[in-house]
Amino acid sequence: MSDVGSSSGSVTSNTSHTSPSRRNVLRGVAGAAGLAAVSGGLLTACGSGSDAKDEKKGGSGGGTASVAGSTVTFGSNYSDPSAKAAFAALTTAATAATKVEVKTNTVDHNTFQQSITSYLQGTPDDLFTWFAGYRMQYFAAQGLAEPIDDVWEKIGGGLSDSAKKLSTGLDGHQYLVPIYNYPWVVFYNKSQFARAGYTVPATWDEYVALAKRMKGDGLVPIAFADKDGWPALGTFDILNMRINGYDYHSKLMKHEIPWTDQGVHTVFQHWAEIMPYLQSGANGRIWQDAAKTLETKKAGMMFQGTNQVAAQYVTDQVDLDDLDFFPFPAINPQWGQDYMDAPTDGFMLSRKAKNPDAAKAILEYIGTGPAEAQYLKTDQWDVGLANGLEVPSYNAIQRKSVTEIAKCKAVAQFMDRDADPAMATAMIAVIQKFIDDPSTGNIAALQKSAESQAKAIYS
Amino acid sequence: MSSAVSQARTPAAAPDGTGSPARRRRGVRGLSARDRVVVALLLGIPLLLDLAFVWFPAIGTVLLSFTKWNGVGGLHTTTCKPNLPSILNNGCVYGVQNYHQAATIYPEFWPAVRHNLIWLAVFVLFATPLGMLFAVLIDRGIRGSRMYQSMLFLPVMLSLALIGIIWEFVYSQNFGLINTVIGRDGNDNAIDWLGNPRLNLWAVLVEATWRQSGYVMVLYLAGLKAVDPTLREAARVDGANDWQTFWRVIFPVMRPINIVIMVVTVIESLRAFDLVYITNKGVNGLELLSVLVTSNIVGETQRVGFGSALGVVLLLISLVPISLFLHQTFRREES
């Protein structure tokens, strides 16, 4: 508890001396339009005449009359060394493009998430890293974030409609600039499949049959870990979307469908069917260890995000070329493989930002293809969202991720981003209890418990 | 709290020591202005600190426990309306609903209460006697006692979070020390020390005991060193054996230390948090009240009212040993 408190304290204390002077703010207002044009020009789609005129006007005032030279503070949860380096590269490029200094306050990833409410109500940084989905909408709806529709007018042309939808709050305004996402899919080792003659399953029956065959061959069919609680939520999400479809899933996440519904029961029944093929003792295993059983080819498959599995391969310097994936097999032919979890990370503007105009200039730069490419230079698992984004550093996994996400009719954001976080926490406990005892009687009891908790949380 | 209590008691007893009201009043009047300022400051500062950091949060928590609030925006005095989305129903008066929900539909609540009591029992019945045993053995000056002392004290110097991480290496299912040594690190036969809800509480209690017994040992060792050696000699002259000397002479003499250790044990077991949190965030067999309070109050979306209700429950449980301790102390002072 004290860790959380002290870290959030350090976030807020860092901002004070970087607050701009009143003159700076006024200058920022005057020069905002000009700067917007500079960064907007990076987007091939947005080269209108009025922008060019604005740019001239901004330019005539010299560097002093625009946001250029002012400082924006950025609260970052990119605390892992590689992510931190990639993020630093991004902000350096943003400064080069906008002439706005960026001061980054990095906070441990989990601590950042834990203290977000008090952080945003205190003296937050101008910009902060966050996630798309209900998680973003929840904070936007309570007036903790500033709408950035004007930023989206500039960057919208370079991003897909689905990206815009993910960045839109419950009130219809945009609150987030996304930078990358990553798919949740079934991973396997190509060499292992080739040697044993396994084929990629497209349907549920093929999936179960393959798992059974792997078990016969002495493998752990599906590497599985849930010690941290959240990884198994992904399995629930994909089964729910395959069986009941995306609309049902999002309604369930908003508690417009009760957790005692038969559809939820069917999800758990399917899960129970593959339980014998999932690595046992999942509640005591961290996902990194599960990924290691896949790396060492003791396991045949693993359902998780590229952000985890591919990242682990990179970290452990295991042959990334041998890693491949397929989208989770179809169960209900009505939906096929139309949906998947592809959590999106991005950036938001705090309501209490001290230098909002310069911050918007930074956001406009970050929302461009070149900015995403800059970030992804060092990132070998996530993929950018900009239309027609060409990233020469993409590996096979990343190229395939782009293709598979593009094929989807809708992408979900993962249960802890699509539902009220308190409900996601409740479901972590429910699903761990299901993993302990996947019997039909227990499923009914757990559904009842989930529903009574949902009633308390959502009303 | 206890320090403030003793502070508050001091001036009453200090001026003359007899404590009769009439004489005490005369005593205060007899003080110079400067002395009165000093007394006021010495009394007032701790009192203010006590009010600000103990009573204000405590009473605030009790009040918040009757509301529904997610930490954003202000509180108001209207009653919560049923069947409204929680965002629109924020900061309202919720009555005893939080307590009711905790006891009925919150599945983690009763396991947490049970685990807190188990934790207390293990500390009282196992960790503390073990620490005492270590202290007595080391105090007897066995060969290499300094080495044992440092070894047993080492975990006390580590933060509990670090201890949790160290033991992860011991308990990890497929890569851990225990399972590797006993050959049960396969995928079918591995023992799931930290994930099996029937095992993990005990596994974590081993970690906690590893540290706690060292802590008790140090406190007890200090107490043993302070015991007048002539008592021991006298007992020996009277023909008492080691066992009798310890239980009949040394142990009763160490009453103040024993009380300190009892208080430390109770406090440590009620505030247990770090180890289970680092192990699995306190879910799936490791629920503790402190973790539930934290997971509801500290987090992305806060259920401040609900978490406060859980905090009040923890406060009520803590009050039992605290009142017993205060009752004991005051009775001794008066007699």
Structure description:
The complex is a heterodimer of chains A (459) and B (335). Chain A is an alpha/beta fold and 459 residues long. Chain A is 52% helix and 12% strand. Chain A contains 22 helices and twelve strands. Chain A has helices at residues 2-15, 22-40, 49-60, 81-98, 109-114, 116-121, 134-141, 149-155, 161-166, 190-196, 204-216, 231-244, 246-253, 262-274, 287-295, 306-315, 356-366, 369-376, 396-407, 415-418, 421-436, 440-458, and strands spanning 71-76, 101-106, 127-131, 177-181, 184-189, 220-223, 299-305, 323-326, 339-341, 344-349, 383-384, 410-412. In chain A, the strands form three sheets. Chain A has a six-stranded mixed beta sheet with strand order 2-1-3-10-4-11, with helices on both faces. Chain A is globular, with a radius of gyration of 23 Å. Residues 1-65 of chain A have low confidence and may be disordered. With 335 residues, chain B is mostly helical. Chain B contains 15 helices and two strands. Residues 1-19 of chain B have low confidence and may be disordered. Chain B has helices at 2-13, 21-29, 33-64, 97-104, 109-139, 145-157, 160-171, 177-181, 200-226, 229-237, 242-253, 255-270, 274-280, 289-297, 304-334, and strands at 67-68, 92-93. Chain B has a two-stranded antiparallel ribbon with strand order 1-2. The relative contact order of chain B is 0.11. The chains are: A alpha/beta (459), B mainly alpha (335). Chains A and B meet through helix 6, helix 7, helix 15, helix 21 and helix 22 of A and helix 14 of B.
